[in-house]
Amino acid sequence: MKKIIDTFDTPLHHEQIRALYRHSPFMLLGVLGVMGFVGFFFWDSVDSQVLISWLGINLLLTAARVLLVKLFVRFQPKGRAVVKWGLFFALSSVLSGIIWGQIVFLFMDLDDVMSVLVVVLVITSISSASLFALSVFLPAFLGFGLPVLLPLVIRLINQPDNVITLMGYMIAVFVMGNVVFSFVVNRNVSESICLRFENLEMLKKFRAQKNIAEKANTDKSRFLAATSHDLRQPLHAMDLYLGALRNLLIDDEQIQLLDKGQQSSAVLNELLTALMDVSRLDAGDVIVDRSVVNIDALMQTICDECYEKAGQQGISLELRASNLQVDSDALMLGRILRNLINNACAHSAGSKILLKAEKVDEQVTVTVCDDGRGIPEEEQQQVFSEFYQLNNPERDRSKGLGLGLAIVKRLASLLHHDLQLESASGEGCCFKLCLPHVDVAENSQIETTDQLERDVSGLFVILVDDEAEIRSAMRTLLLQWGCELLVTDGLTALQQELATRKYPIPDVLLCDYRLRENLTGLDIVETMRHYFKVKIPALIISGDTDKAVEEKVIKQGCEILHKPVQPDVLRVAIHAIAGLRVTNP
């Protein structure tokens, strides 16, 4: 018995047995129907006691088989136990086959043609029906089919009547055909099961690889976030020190050297920001915030920002107004247009850049054109790839990393804005962006930040940052601007200092976002507002570019700047929020 179980103790046979039990209810229901037909047809032609006994035994066995199926479904056996259940079913099939095979001897009258035909019809029909239900597990089919058919073949062949003998041989051929076909059916079912196993294994591997990829993506996002913060910290400190140093220099040559240092810092900041933008777009961390955008106001703002840079390259920047509104994300759309203009300034080698918007049907087409060297047709798809640059074989970092157009492509795809490039060698480039037109009476206003120097002298600023270098550089810069300061490295030190003497209400809270002891700058802001009972204007400086962080800061009524922060930008931000105190927040 153990050897038999070992023979069928394979995943394939386990699945065959499960399929056998799934198919059995329909076969057993058919058996009951055929039993009723046999009882009805032979009721008047055979001994009723024999017929009732046969029907009773068959009915009891069928009930036992139904119970077997229900128990299998209930207990859902696994492993070697499945084989035992399969052998129990095969044994019940043998018993059922023997009982059905007895009708050849109990009910068939060879002198009654109709009796012979009905028995032959019943036997061949029930064996054919069992072929499809039981061939999935060969012991079950062979255990039923052979005991049903062989008695009929033996009895018919041994008759003197040539017609009946011929019928016996024909049924013998039928038996062999059934056996062969059962093996074919079993093979097809086995192949199907094996294919399913392979698919399940592939699915398992796919899920494993998917989990690995998702974990890698999560790890990458965490790594980039940590790297971004860690890289921005020293860069932020360097910018602050350079800004403070400017106020101490009087020699023109020294100031020129400082300008070059600040330009290098600005390039490094742009490269870091571009790398982080690409990673965030690839990770799907960017959320689209659609609104009605006044395209004229947005383009004017961008041109104002880019006039100086274009002029330094000897390029004139022309804007053609249109008085149109579009449905888009103002920040993302602005980033697209800035990147296109900056790309033209850096790589076109032309003398003119045109920025215009015009309505075409129900769309607004925003066009950025230059009259530079153009892009060959075979290169036009490549320019949207990461780190791909034309006309920069020396990899001059002042011309960027080759990520500007890659970011443009991703942002346009995210916004569902069609982006087209028309260009040819020596004929300049023309980038076209198609936007949904919005017909509204009011123009959306695009807020701009005037980054001119503002006077912040005399403001009392509480500065909280856990990085010593940042605190030192910030203290130096703010003191040079004439601010009065209270500088600490965290909430505990700040509370201790406030307890030693009576400080006036600060004009501005200037806090790093991530602090020690799992605190954030928002915790400092909330505590200080509660302590002074005033909604003190607060500026959070963060190396984390996560959108969720920005939303938290804005929700708490604070402004946010991302590291590294240029000194002029910091001064403008402090000046802008100073004087916005609200009593009893």
TrEMBL record:
Q: Give this protein's Gene Ontology molecular function annotations.
A: phosphorelay sensor kinase activity
What is the reaction catalyzed? ATP + protein L-histidine = ADP + protein N-phospho-L-histidine
Q: Which InterPro entries match?
A: CheY-like_superfamily (IPR011006), HATPase_C_sf (IPR036890), HATPase_dom (IPR003594), His_kinase_dom (IPR005467), HisK_dim/P_dom (IPR003661), HisK_dim/P_sf (IPR036097), Sensor_HK_Regulatory (IPR050736), Sig_transdc_His_kin-like_C (IPR004358)
Q: What is its EC number?
A: 2.7.13.3
Q: Which PROSITE patterns match?
A: HIS_KIN, RESPONSE_REGULATORY
Question: For this UniProt entry, which residues form the secretion signal?
Answer: none
One Pfam family it belongs to: HisKA
Listed A to Z, the keywords are: Kinase, Membrane, Phosphoprotein, Transferase, Transmembrane, Transmembrane helix, Two-component regulatory system
Q: Does the keyword Transcription apply?
A: no
Response regulatory domain: which residues?
A: 460-578
Q: Which residues form the Histidine kinase domain?
A: 226-439
* Stretches that traverse the bilayer: 26-43, 49-73, 85-108, 114-142, 163-185
UniProt keyword Isomerase, yes or no: no
UniProt-recorded name of the protein = histidine kinase
**Species name for this entry?**
hydrothermal vent metagenome
